[in-house]
Design brief:
This protein has 583 residues and is mainly alpha-helical. It has a domain of 342 residues. It is built from six helices and no strands. The two termini are 77 Å apart.
Length: 583
């Protein structure tokens, strides 16, 4: 066996005697072989299998850990990008606030100007109202009289027109009803004829079917009667045959001795005739017995065939089991041969009694290393869980930032709408100024234009009321926009705090990952490079890792269950947040 370290120094005789005792010291000792190095065969692949498998598992674990680190770096880049986007959104929000303040100042100035215009217009309207009250009263009285006359005339005309329309409507309804009744009558007649034809066809078909069924029933009854008659005849014939047979047997038994009166020829003929009939009856009975025995034999043969089939299936099953047992025996023989060859190559093992001690020592070392690896894997699982929580919180922050962006866009749209409303208010103000100038010009006009002034005054009052409503709506909208902007500012502050907390958490996770990577590298170096000394040798090729694998599986299952529980809790928290947001 090739050794990677120089042979140990020779020890004294007392130390050798101490090590030869099985209880004094349980360390593993490697002895020098007398065989030269070139003559020793390399170890088989089965001995190195577990070492390579562990190396492959560790490489896969490192690859997974590298992918996790890459994901953490990507998350950091995404966090930085979101920070820049948040700064841009804050700049845009500040611009919107400045724009809103400027618009509010313009609104206040326009309100002052509109208030002055309203006061001046109210004074002018009051003067015009005082001037034209008398004329309005007279016009009102005349209008009342005219309305009464016009209403009476309209009532008469409307009553006459309504009577004419009613007459025409009634005539049209009568025509429609007559036409519809005729159409309905024709349709019903057609449906009746169609239904009669269908009923006749169905009746004819049913009668034909009934005739067929009746004929079939009669034929079947006749056949059944014929069969019954044949059965009765056959049964009577059989009874007669049996009766004749019994009578003939009785006659034969009671035949007296030949008398002197009967001739021998007649007796011989009678005996021959009786013998022929007996032979015929016996042949018929034998035929019946033969048929019965054939039927019984057929049933017995069927039962025997079924039994033989069951035996054949059982034999096939036993053969398959026997073949499997042979294969298992061959596999066991091969395993025994491999174990024997391995026993020859294991150092410090001279008999079967030394194997449990060797395996116990190796198992202790392997269990210690596997416990360390399990602790590291559990810690890594915890880190993965924390990373998932960080990802979830990051996604929540992304959603909140997207909502903040949408609200900022909505506020910008609302500001544009307010600007358009302000422009419409300014246009209305200009129009009111123009109307005021036209009123001032019309003051010099004659008193005949009183009605025109009254209509203009009413239009001005309505426009003033509308303007007041629009101004109130604008004030309410501005107040709401201010509240929304303040709330968005608070939300953005909270998001910034969350992002900073997540960044600190990711940095701590990165530091923990670096520490774990260094520990894994140290463990790999210890597992892969043993010094083959009696105290520090770590051989991982003949370890029974069933118990260790079961423990690792149990730990993995427990961690998976904890992950599922945490995910369920996170989903419940997200649902509660969504419900609270909707409320």
């Amino acid at each position: 066996m090739i050794l990677r370290t120089p042979p140990p120094r020779k020890r004294r005789a007392d130390s050798v005697a101490d090590h030869e005792s099985p209880v004094s010291d349980r360390r593993l000792v490697l002895y020098d072989d007398a065989v030269p190095v070139s003559s020793v065969d390399p170890p088989p692949d089965q001995m190195v299998c577990t070492y390579h498998c562990r190396q492959m598992v560790k490489s896969e674990f490192l690859v997974a850990f590298d992918t996790a680190e890459k994901q953490v770096r990507e998350y950091q880049s995404q966090l930085e990008r979101w920070k820049t986007e948040l700064h841009e959104s804050e700049d845009e929000r500040k611009k919107c606030q400045d724009r809103l303040s400027y618009l509010e100042q313009e609104l206040e100035a326009s309100k002052g100007r509109e208030h002055a215009l309203q006061e001046r217009l109210l004074k002018e309207v009051n003067d015009s109202q005082e001037r034209y009250q008398f004329q309005i009263k007279r016009c009102h009285e005349l209008e009342v009289q005219l309305k009464k006359e016009v209403d009476s005339r309209k009532n008469f005309e409307s009553s006459a027109a309504s009577a004419k329309e009613r007459v025409t409507d009634l005539e049209e309804k009568l025509q429609r009803l007559s036409e519809s009744s005729e159409r309905e009558k024709n349709r019903l007649q057609r449906e009746l004829s169609h239904l009669q034809d269908e009923s006749q066809l169905s009746v004819s078909r049913k009668t034909a079917d009934l005739e067929k069924m009746r004929l079939k029933a009669e034929n079947l009854e006749e056949e059944s009667e014929l069969l019954r008659k044949q059965f009765k005849d056959i049964r009577e014939q059989l009874d007669e045959c049996l009766h004749q047979k019994s009578a003939l047997e009785h006659e034969l038994s009671t035949i007296p001795t030949p008398s002197q009166e009967s001739t021998p020829s007649e007796d011989q003929n009678l005996v021959k005739h009786l013998r022929d009939e007996l032979q015929n009856y016996e042949a018929e009975v034998q035929e019946a017995r033969r048929l019965k025995s054939c039927h019984v034999n057929n049933e017995l043969l069927k039962e025997k065939l079924l039994e033989e089939k069951g035996r054949r299936e059982k034999a096939e099953m036993e053969l398959s089991k026997f073949q499997q047992a042979q294969l298992n025996a061959q596999n066991l023989e091969l395993e025994l041969m491999s174990w024997k060859s391995l026993l020859k190559e294991i150092p410090d093992v001279t008999s079967y009694d030394d194997i449990p001690k060797k395996i116990a020592g190796l198992q202790k070392e392997a269990i210690e290393s596997m416990i360390k690896v399990g602790e590291i894997s559990a810690h890594l699982k915890e880190l993965e869980v924390s990373l998932e929580l960080a990802e979830l919180s990051k996604q929540h922050a992304e959603k909140e930032s997207a909502l903040a962006k949408e609200e900022a866009e909505n506020s910008a749209v609302e500001v544009k709408r307010l600007e358009r409303m302000l422009s419409s208010v300014t246009e209305e103000r200009d129009r009111l100024n123009k109307d005021a100038t036209t009123l001032n010009k019309q003051k010099t006009v004659h008193a005949d234009g009183g009605m025109m002034n009254e209509t203009l005054v009413k239009d001005l009052e309505s426009t003033l009321a509308l303007r007041e409503q629009t101004i109130k709506e604008l004030e309410n909208n501005l107040h709401k926009q201010r509240e929304v902007m303040n709330r968005q500012h608070d939300e953005i502050k909270l998001l910034n705090e969350k992002l900073s907390f997540e960044a600190r958490r990711i940095k701590s996770l990165e530091r923990e990952g670096d520490r774990l990577r260094s520990e894994i590298a140290l463990l790999e170096s210890k597992l892969g490079h043993g010094d083959y000394s009696a105290a520090n040798t770590k051989v991982l090729r003949m370890v029974n890792t069933l118990a260790v694998d079961n423990e690792t599986k149990q730990t993995i299952e427990a961690l998976q269950a904890e992950l599922k529980k945490t995910r369920a809790k996170l989903q419940a928290v997200e649902e509660l947040k969504g419900q609270s947001g909707q409320a």
